[in-house]
Give the backbone structure.
Amino acid sequence: MGTSKDLELQWTIWQDRHYWTGELQFRGESFGWDVMVRRDGALVLAQRFPLHAEAARWAEELRGFIERGWKD
């Protein structure tokens, strides 16, 4: 399974008095990459992708939603 060394911080946003982060974490060849979105440190959304490029693209799409005012 992934370790903290496998965690990639993709972005941080301060939006509507909340601190949001988008992270990618490698879970191994058999599992792929997790995208994790946290608000104020709490996990609010996660999705797994087989390839890094797919995970990074989805994380960027979520960043756009949050910047436009998306709320969970």
